[in-house]
Amino acid sequence: MAGVMKKVHFPKIKLQEMLMRPGGIGRDEAIGAAMDNLRSESGESNTVMENAIAAIAAIAANARKNALSEQDMAEILEQADQIVTLAGTFGYEYLDRAARGLCDITDGLMRANRHDAAPIHVHVMALRLFSPAAATPSQAEAEKVLSELASVTAFYNFGPIDSRVN
Amino acid sequence: MAQQRLNFRGVSVLLVDRNHYCRSLVAQMLRGFGVENVISCETGAEAQDQLKTNHVELCVTEADLPDMPGADLINWLRRENKDPLRFVPILVLSGYTQLRLLSATRDAGANLLLKKPLSAQALFDRLAWLARTPRSYIETKNYVGPDRRFKDIAPPDSAFKRETDAPEESAQDETQAEELRSA
Predict the structure, then answer these.
(1) Phi then psi for B151, rounded to 5 degrees?
(2) Residue A86 to residues A76, A148, A157: CA-CA distances in angstroms?
(3) What are the pLDDT digits (tens) for B132-174?
(4) Which in A97, A151, B110, B171 has the greatest CB count within 10 A?
């Protein structure tokens, strides 16, 4: 086999040198300080999630003949992705699962070149139910709603986005 | 056992994420660790501008940016710049819908990949790993970035299958493997 042009570098990585200097901060202390800082942001996170849910609802409400454009779908995906990130960060488990479901169905529809608004509407209802501003549902209620969302996704035969990642 | 300590004093970080609030969350985590200088920007073009005028020790970027894939920014960093910027550690953050882009960012030369939602624990542990794990950087026609092989031994059957496994390197690795087997 012919050799391929290859160079191997052993660069000095300044980050490594700086992080390994004496002093610094221990893991527990660093994580504690980071969590404190995050808690100070949690109030705004609820507003950001509520705004994202409202934005998705507005897009879905403007669907013409029960169909959404490619651009609408892309915007829904971006907003839903943001909800997944924030719901996961701040511990809204049901909202996280519902938003992931919305990502899965929207991504699946886009890949299948379909524009159905109905499954988006169903997910919007679930997002509102699980939103930070809403009363916390019982576990049984939440699981029932989430299983219904899962059946919608199963109807379309779309899998979770992360199952398609190699 | 003594806890891992890291000294973030004076470390500058470039943080690229399309979402203002997500940038703010990551910046807050970094500040909790002791990072004093976090340069935030939204797009790949802004990041390139910032990197032309600022020294940073770490780049944290989203896998997909509004104006370009994160892989394009990483490719630019690894190919169009000089040392030390060229070899700056790059941590890629991926939202749920961006997971399919991770392999492209890895192949572009990212050091580490992390899925959102990001936890302070995961971020600290990855940075600790970066600090403690020196890696060589490989430059080939198709790849510039950290060596992704962690075991310095030959494959089990000593059959080198990668195009980049040059014969002389193979011979060296086989010798090392033989030494390890006989040790």
Answers:
(1) -105, 125
(2) 15, 23, 27
(3) 988 899 999 899 999 988 776 776 677 776 666 655 444 444 4
(4) B110
* pLDDT digits 0-9 by tens, A51-94: 999 999 999 999 988 899 999 999 999 999 999 999 999 989 99
Question: CB-based contacts of A22: which residues, under 8 Å, 6+ apart?
Answer: B7
Whole-prediction pTM value?
A: 0.83
Would you kindly state where each structural domain of chain B is located, as residue ranges?
12-146, 151-183
Q: Which of A14, A48, A161 has the most B C-beta neighbours within 10 Å, making it the best mutation to test the interface with B?
A: A14
Domain A44-160: state its class.
Answer: mainly alpha
Give the class (CATH, top level) of B12-146: alpha beta
Contact residues, A window 61-80, toward B, CB-based 8 Å cutoff: 77-78, 80
Partner-chain residue, chosen from B28, B97, B168, that has the shortest CB–CB distance to A81: B97
Provide the residue ranges of all domains of chain A, joining segments of one domain with +: 44-160
Q: 3-state DSSP call for residue B13?
A: strand
